[in-house]
Write a structure and sequence with these properties.
The chain is α/β, with parallel strands linked by helices. Helices cover 17% and strands 34% of the residues. It is built from 2 helices and 8 strands; from the N terminus they run βαββββαβββ. Strands 1-4-3-2 form a 4-stranded mixed beta sheet, with helices on one face. Strands 5-8-7-6 form a 4-stranded mixed beta sheet, with no helix packed on it. The model has no long low-confidence stretch (mean pLDDT 96).
Length: 118
């Protein structure tokens, strides 16, 4: 089983900045089908989608987060840094580096070099 998508509430005025942030970690904007174009912007990578659901008052989880495994961890961190996003490394509990950044809308995103062992 694979996680197909998750939804993050986002103000319409933050969408362009969110799409640019997700592009830094390997996601591309894709067109939602039909009526969904009116309610969300989607980004995708390797079959996994992030649905940026439009809302005037988004709920931003203070510690909840989305985690992604970077195709090239060091290059991803360099892109985030060059774009001005703070990255907070955390413990490498399974021997692989990882840490957190905040998207422009305030969502916490974990970037990992490798996933935890099965």
């Amino acid at each position: 089983m694979t996680l197909q998508h998750t939804t993050l509430e986002t103000r319409r005025e933050d969408i362009d900045a969110e799409v640019a942030f997700w592009a830094l970690i390997g996601f591309e904007q894709v067109e939602p089908p039909g009526r969904l174009r009116d309610i969300a912007t989607w980004v995708a990578r390797n079959g996994t989608q992030i649905h940026l659901l439009y809302t005037d008052e988004p709920v931003i989880a203070p510690r909840g987060h989305v985690a992604v495994v970077a195709d090239d961890y060091d290059a991803t961190l360099q892109r985030l840094d060059r774009a001005g996003f703070a990255f907070e490394p955390t413990t490498a509990d399974w021997g692989a580096p990882r840490g957190f950044a905040r998207s422009p809308a305030g969502h916490r995103v974990e970037v990992m070099q490798a996933p935890p062992p099965s």
